């Protein structure tokens, strides 16, 4: 049952990314181009997503177990350290240069969109390098 729910959740998420325009690098770059022809529509998408997820997320944080019976992970630490700042900078630079972040990058794999495939391969390679360097 869990793999089926994971697949269904991923499909719903992917359809949402496509429908909202988040999987279109040109739209994302238009949103990030504050000095040029800024397209604020993705801000509305993000605000809507936060609004929809806010109450269920707050409820889930108070539960000892997930709907599938798994223990809920502890709330992450609230400290801001060098790793968080460096990771945020790398994420932002990658998003700004490519127009992709992880979710839309994975969606682009299904579409066979070459720039998205290159981004996703580079992202996975970066994750592996990070894992390797942390050992």
Automatic annotation (TrEMBL):
Membrane-spanning ranges: 42-61, 82-100, 106-127
Listed InterPro entries: DUF6691 (IPR046513)
Key words, A-Z: Membrane, Transmembrane, Transmembrane helix
Protein name, UniProt field: YeeE/YedE family protein
Source taxon at top rank: Bacteria
């Amino acid at each position: 049952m869990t793999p089926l729910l994971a697949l269904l959740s991923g499909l719903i998420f992917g359809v949402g990314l496509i429908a909202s325009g988040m999987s279109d690098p040109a739209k994302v770059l238009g949103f990030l181009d504050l000095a040029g022809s800024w397209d604020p529509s993705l801000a509305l998408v993000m605000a809507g997503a936060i609004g929809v997820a806010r109450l269920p997320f707050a409820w889930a944080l108070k539960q000892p177990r997930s709907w599938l019976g798994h223990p809920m992970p502890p709330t992450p630490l609230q400290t801001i350290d060098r790793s968080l700042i460096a990771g945020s900078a790398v994420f932002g630079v990658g998003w700004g240069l490519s127009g992709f972040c992880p979710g839309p990058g994975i969606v682009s794999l299904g579409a066979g969109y070459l720039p998205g495939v290159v981004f996703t391969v580079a992202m996975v390679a970066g994750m592996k390098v990070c894992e390797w360097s942390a050992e």
